[in-house]
Write a structure and sequence with these properties.
Helix content is 37%, strand content 13%. The chain is an alpha+beta fold. It has a five-stranded mixed sheet. A two-stranded antiparallel ribbon has the order 1-7.
């Protein structure tokens, strides 16, 4: 509800934008690899800002390739058990289209990595199911010995260690990643109320949770221990998670969350209308 599809009310419907999802699927299935051999796990379909902090070789130059969109149509036809001969015949002949794309990778050297980023948990993207399963689940279930405030950066970190992603040009004559250049969808929301009001986590909060589930997690804990920084024990974390759960279930929290979400939805509606007016102009 807080992502707006950029249809013809919002943005010019170039041929590239009309086939954005099919192109993204075909490109993801084409076996692209980054400079260091990491595979491309999917395509982001939202405005990109990675040029502001990524540098070559982690930010590739724009490249062009050919993909066959009928491979996507054929897969869809087979999955739907469609026996229509006309539909099947339309998949027999290749429908090759040219795609301009750019690959983005994270810095794997932990001493140089400044951000954990990616639309893997919030945003619009299309990914290989096989690669998502390889990364594994998100941590943050009640029984996990894990601080749930770090669910998204932790998942992004684990994804970025194994894979890269691509963006595709959807506007004509697009040289740099701009506001709409790579976007089939646009974020008009401001998030939803999900953070407890009082539980601060004390020493159970920290960036080290980003590394949870990876070999670097134990290294981070050892470094903290050597520096004399207080560590959060399992019992302390589970106690904090209990406080967090109680706060989320309180009437005060629900009322505050409802108030904030109402304001956010009003702003989203206003932003949606503004973009429609701009599209008409």
């Amino acid at each position: 509800e807080d992502w707006l599809y950029m249809d013809d009310l919002i943005s010019q419907q170039t041929e590239k934008r009309k086939r954005a999802i099919s192109t993204a699927i075909a490109l993801t299935n084409s076996g692209l690899q980054a400079y260091d051999g990491r595979e491309v796990m999917g395509v982001f379909l939202r405005p990109e800002t990675y040029a502001s902090f990524l540098k070559p070789p982690n930010m590739h130059p724009w490249q062009t390739t050919q993909v066959d969109l009928n491979t996507v149509l054929a897969a869809s036809t087979n999955n739907n058990n469609n026996d229509d001969e006309t539909a099947q015949d339309s998949c027999d002949e290749p429908q090759n289209v040219s795609v301009d794309y750019q690959i983005f990778c994270a810095e794997k050297d932990q001493t140089k990595m400044e951000y954990t980023w990616g639309s893997y948990t919030n945003g619009v993207g299309l990914y290989s199911r096989e690669k998502l399963m390889d990364i594994g689940r998100m941590y943050g279930e009640p029984e996990d010995v894990f601080n749930s405030r770090y669910v998204e950066p932790n998942y992004a970190f684990r994804a970025l260690q194994k894979y890269c992603h691509a963006a595709i040009q959807l506007d004509d004559n697009c040289q740099d990643i701009g506001k709409h250049c790579t976007a089939a969808f646009y974020h008009i929301g401001g998030g939803r109320g999900t953070i407890p009001m009082k539980a601060d986590g004390s020493k159970c909060a920290g960036f080290f949770w980003v590394f949870y589930g990876t070999p670097w997690f134990e290294q981070q804990l050892k470094m903290m221990e050597m520096s004399g920084e207080p560590l959060c024990t399992e019992s302390e974390l589970m106690e904090w998670k209990g406080i967090e759960a109680i706060e989320k279930d309180s009437a005060e929290y629900r009322q505050e969350t409802a108030r904030m979400n109402k304001e956010i939805r009003q702003k989203e509606q206003q932003k949606r209308q503004e973009m429609i007016v701009q599209g008409e102009v």
